[in-house]
Amino acid sequence: xxxxxICCLLALFSYLDAxxxxxxxxxxxDMGWSGTSVQIAPNVSASKSSIYQTPxxxxxxxxxxxxxxxYAPGPMCSPSRAGILTGKTPAEVQMTTPxxxxxxxxxxxxxxxxxxxxxxxxxxxxxxxxxxxxxxTAHLGKWHIGRTGPEAYGYDVHDGSTGNEPxxxxxxxxxxxxxxxxxxxxxxxxxxxxHTPFYLQLSHYAVHSPVEARASSKExxxxxxxxxxxxxxxxxxxxxxxxxxxxxxxxxxxxxGIADNTYLIxxxxxxxxxxxxxxxxxxxxxxxxGSLLEGGIRIPFFAEGPGIAAGSISRESITGCDLYPTFxxxxxxxxxxxxxxxxxxxxxxGKQTTLTERSHLFHYPHYGQGPKQKPQSALILGDYxxxxxxxxxxxxxxxLKDDLxxxxxxxxxxxxKTQEMINLLHDxxxxxxxxxxxxxxxxxxxxxxxxGRPKR
Length: 456
Hints:
Layout: H1 2-19, E1 22-28, H2 55-63, E2 65-71, H3 77-86, E3 110-111, H4 126-132, E4 136-141, E5 157-158, H5 177-193, E6 198-203, H6 215-220, H7 232-255, E7 262-268, H8 276-279, H9 294-297, E8 298-299, E9 301-304, E10 312-319, H10 323-331, H11 345-348, E11 359-364, E12 376-381, E13 384-389, E14 395-399, H12 415-431, E15 438-439
């Protein structure tokens, strides 16, 4: 009687092991909401670029699900990456600006909140959770989450504590796009041969400035005219290169015979630089990277894998913080308590058509180098978004369903809704002990701010 029981147990363990899917996550740097040739929102024609060509992302969208209302955890690089890694809003983990934010200047009325440039290694992370569930873990490409490297956060294989500059960039490997891919393919092949489930994150340096692209891609877009001071042709070429890498990655998944058991997620870390018509990557949205207006935080988001219906579109509001619990559910491991994010697994599988309504908090208590990059907090709940300016203490309310470009402030015409939203925003900031801006003792009203864009 014991032998059948043992056989059943072995079969069960074998099934559970086989059921663990591979998870590949691609994070693109500074790709705006409409920075692709995929029409992200069917009812918004400008959610598709008129310049950029991304045929591989089009194929990905056709094969899986795209989200029309996806958000980065923050408006800039490091905060978003920290939010994705930990499943918590960047304000809760005290990483709200890249590199610690620098020194408060005399022309700034407020001193920014937390300037922590390092993320606590005691935090739960995607890689730690999946590693404990038997996964091999790898982070390739741009890290930019403080001084401590990926190994301390659960990654077996990694490129080190890298920043904005790729370690290798050449005419045929601009921004190390294809070098990252090759290292990813090597890792995928090793794990496939050993039948080990894997979690692989490819964090690309593109399409962050400076513009770099293959000669063949530059030739393809040579007739695209500049947009203001922006090299639109170069940006289009660089976007085409990153898109080509997605096609190569999907081809490798097929070649290894693991497509039926592999999830692929592609998203951007924040909005495009400049935003709107100046760069052409945020389309109808207001502002861009560094701002809590939609152009700074609304992003393209694609998912493909077992159970995800081809060509499906979700209008649910999600953030990058949702990846951690989603990956845990896919891996069959415990989802840590206290996360900002929620699992999207059932929604992606079509078993849960709508997600429970929840608020999304965004907190950027710092100044950038543009008029819309200043200490602000925002909260989205349902169709509404409240935006609080810490310097002027002004409040704006927008209905994103009717006014995606945030052109109509409803705070005066809807005072009750505005008060409800602003109360919730401040309650949430207090609940996570967010670091808030304070008066700058060295503020000089006559001092002038420099012009230019942040190199982050």
